[in-house]
Amino acid sequence: MRILVIGTGAREHALVKALAADPEVEAVIAAPGNPGIAAAALCEPLAGGVDDGAAVVELAQRHAVDLVVVGPEAPLVAGVADAVRAAGIACYGPSAEAARLEGSKSFAKEVMAAAEVPTGLGHVCTTIEEVADALDALGAPHVVKEDGLAAGKGVVVTDDREAALEHARACLAKEGGRVVVEEFLDGPEVSLFCICDGESVVPLTPAQDFKRVGEDDTGPNTGGMGAYSPLDWAPAALVEEVVARVAQPTVDEMARRGTPFVGTLFIGLALTSRGPRVIEFNARFGDPETQVVLARLETPLGQLLALAAEGRLAQAPALRWSPRHAVTVVVASHNYPGTPRTGDPIEGLDAAAADGTAYVLHAGTRLDEGALVSAGGRVLSVVALGDTLAEARERAYAAVDQISLEGSHHRRDIALKAERGEVSVPSR
Ligand code: AMP
Ligand code: GLY
Known about the structure:
The protein has 428 residues and is of the alpha+beta class. It folds into four domains: 2-92, Rossmann fold (3-Layer(aba) Sandwich); 122-182, Dna Ligase, domain 1, CATH 3.30.1490; 186-315, D-amino Acid Aminotransferase, Chain A, domain 1, CATH 3.30.470.20; 325-419, Glycinamide Ribonucleotide Synthetase, Chain A, domain 4. Helices cover 30% and strands 27% of the residues. The strands form seven sheets. Strands 3-2-1-4-5 form a five-stranded parallel beta sheet, with helices on both faces. The protein has a five-stranded antiparallel beta sheet with strand order 12-15-18-23-20. The protein is globular, with a radius of gyration of 21 Å. The mean pLDDT is 96. The structure holds adenosine monophosphate and glycine. Residues 152, 209, 223-224, 282, 286-287, 289 line the site of glycine (GLY).
């Protein structure tokens, strides 16, 4: 099998690494990829960017690939998966219509209501007066979400009514601006990825992400600063419950609407005292959670995604998972999640991976006259496995400490509360 992976981040690096390790996969091509991915796959440029469906089809045909795997949300929402399928090539990733589960928070809420999926109360607002009424009806803490794609940065959670209104005003000022004002959901967050073929659902193992830029979950939201898996503190029946109450009803509702969901249904959950509630849907693998989930997946990934793309997921074998613990720590550039400084030299990657207990996945990197430099907000994702969470953390941070990147920052507390046994679900 020959596979083309679309995207440039550490998530795509993790996907390429796992696909290349599948004995049935003979070649992996990545577009545009990055210097880290280039070690495991042939990287091809995409001059028009990852949203250019015609260029993706041309690449897929030129390399005679059997399967295209689309990493990020923007090309999915732009219809790249539709273009690939229209050319008769199997694609792992939802159609533009189905990707609206991520692309529009109000659409996601509508589908959740129709499928009776447990989620927070939400009000879709188009005027500031509606927002003010919704804030008062739901009370603090206030949650205000921009309706469209915002790279994880469109959500403000605050006790400050003025700040909530200000964010809503900024979102409403955009063309077609709409916001969702939502009930605050208390409890630890979990990310669960479900592989879907339009009909069947195969859940992966849950992971936890760290969204805020600062330690102790302070500061603004980011794309994600680190992750770990497994979640020893989570209820044993969690995955089964979420498949039964969330994933399968959502996939069934999308099929009923004539827009079947093929790809990764990423369910962001809060485990509240009243049970799991959906915080958000995404239509793709999460970054950085994918880095730890795939680090533990022992079943060949290429065959699994091919079965999903072909509508034959019911034939997939039961997934096998390593019992080991995986931790990833994101190294971010100066000023991220604000406008990141780029072009800084990156050193120490060989030393970071030298003892074989950790590896470095590339996100925002590029080569500048042969030297590796930063090229984005999240630059690297350092992954380690260990027999215990403590060991995995220790190995990940030992590797991070070998890396030098001027002005960079990372959180030192990824998975720390879990290691200390301080994460728990509020009692019912
Ligand atoms: P989203 O883009 O919807 O995933 O939101 C980003 C982050 O904002 C989530 O990971 C949560 O940490 C937080 N968040 C979103 N919605 C809520 C909610 N209803 N209650 C509490 N926190 C939320
Ligand atoms: N880590 C969360 C996301 O990928 O949106």
